[in-house]
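Support request, please re-run this one:
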Amino acid sequence: MTDATLTSTAAASPQSPTVPDDRFVYVSVHDPLAQPLLEELAYEYSSRYAGLVDKDEIAKEMQRYPAEAFAPPQGAFVLLLRDGQAIAGGAFMPHADPGTTEFKRIWASRNHRRQGLARRVLAELEAQALRQGYTRVYLGTGPRQPEAVGLYQTSGYTLLSSHDFGEDEPPGVLFEKHLVPQREG
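Re-run finished. Output below.
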């Protein structure tokens, strides 16, 4: 049983029996549905940054923010479920700048990659951030995550800075995007 609070349906054709049952669900970080995805994300970080970042530091990073940071009314934690299992997800929390949110933990399960899931999660997070009153997104990703960098570059994000390990600045690739409400009509 999950503690889901808000659900929106993803686009899937009911005419085709081969189309999976995908849907977004907003949950707590502690929801059991989220745990396998978060564990896989921690494993991926450990693999990509082996020899550069200590495993204990990665574990600390995964617990760095309290669950309340990703809870309404200021934050959100969303999962994309397929047939009841989390296959992708992401979150946001308030940023220090007024009207700005910070996106975190955008992730697609390694068994479901190359299906545009992270792009769908990113679009859902942007829409929810707008619904919650945010007008700007700030986010960062690691320098050894070229797929994430490519996703943000092709999704309208502006590169703020990019540093790899061994440079004078801390490693990371930082982006921003100003959110514009979609006009109905």
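The two ends are 39 Å apart (CA to CA). The chain has a mean pLDDT of 84.
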